[in-house]
Amino acid sequence: MSVLDAYYDVGGFHANHGSPLLHIKGATPDGRRLLLQTIQYDDDPSRVVALLARDGDPFTVAASGFADWKDPLPVRLRLPDEQGILVAAEGATLSYRIGAGK
Fold this sequence. Notes:
Number of helices: 0
Low-confidence stretches: none
Structural class: mainly beta
Number of domains: 1
């Protein structure tokens, strides 16, 4: 028995197998803080989670889905309360539109 046996993880370790790991910070049109992250373990699909928070409040999950890395626009999430649709792609330049886009 080794002194490290108590720390052995029978589930093994997790890897993302080269899929992009996005971490995006921003704000919604109504001023809430926005955080988007991708989460992937092993060969599971990449889950995309968008979290929102008002000033001083903790983040809460607002939307989630799966990324399709074969698609030119792999992340598309509709935000609640008519705050728009969040789209993202690895290495893409920040661009946004509010209201009627004018």
